[in-house]
Automatic annotation (TrEMBL):
Ranges of Basic and acidic residues composition bias in the record: 280-309
Protein name in the entry: Domain of unknown function at the cortex 1 domain-containing protein
Region annotation Disordered: where it falls in the sequence: 280-315
Superkingdom of the source species: Eukaryota
Transmembrane segments: none
InterPro entries: Duc1
Species per Swiss-Prot/TrEMBL record: Naematelia encephala
Residue ranges annotated for the Domain of unknown function at the cortex domain, each copy included: 5-272
Amino acid sequence: MAPKLRVLVSSATAYPPSSPITVNSTSPTPIKTDHFDGEISVYIKDYNGDHQGGDGSVYFSSKGRESMTYGIVVRGHFLEEINADDVVFGNVFEKSVKDHLPWGTSIATKFMYFVDPTLEIDIYADKPWALSPTLACMNYLSLGTSKPEGHVVEEDSLPELKILYEGSSSPPDAPSDEKSHVSARRKWLGNAENRKNTTITSDTQVGLEFCNGLLDFNTLSATLPQPFRLQVPLLKYWDGQPVTYVCQKRHEKGESPVGGDRVYFSVAFEIVDEEAKKALEKRGGKASDLAKDATETGEEHASTEAHVENDDDID
């Protein structure tokens, strides 16, 4: 049986996330930070952890989500005008993970670049991170003047991008089918100059959906598809840190992107299973408690991690 989980999201403080969220709920959870105002839903297939709100069928039965294992859906608006190149999304790590990276890590990293060419990553830093331009890396993106509704985000970004763009290489016309729309948007926003010439205003209503079928919370493993053929036993390499996603402002060169007041919102997947914690302690580690740490310190950053590794394949 998989270790018991809980999911935390931003409260008034964007980072670290400290407020438990009901997973698979049909009602989104409001979030308001210094830089973002909106709502969030988190869906996990076969979820049996804390704060369970259903089986997630309203999400996983939706078109295009049938093979997904989890999804993060956010709707709202940024509280200040932002450049599309300056808002990034991904994982940040409060502690070094280089001592927990087994054989196969370089293959997994190549897979990440294959899936997302806009990715920037430093897994060997004291506080490692992996971040991509938010509007380019989302599985589904909605932009408009009215708040999007529904359990999933319906891709409709290109018409609004035409309005928000101020350069000479206008976004393409929106294809008739959603899959082609997603591909066209990701390709166009994969160009840094296009992002730099696009401004998201504070009254732009944004729908963001990030999901995949690679991470299985039921077995706590990750499987990379062909041509990589890797299966990653995540629990074996767990060092006590949760898997945390952040949406934040791009950091300046020479600065660490981890922590600070640049975060718009964050989501953490945290193991709270006592047996898993005991096994970790036998290996000399200690599990983090994001909610407890945030309550006790207020300003202390929570630990984060998103391992992508394998013990069967060799670099």
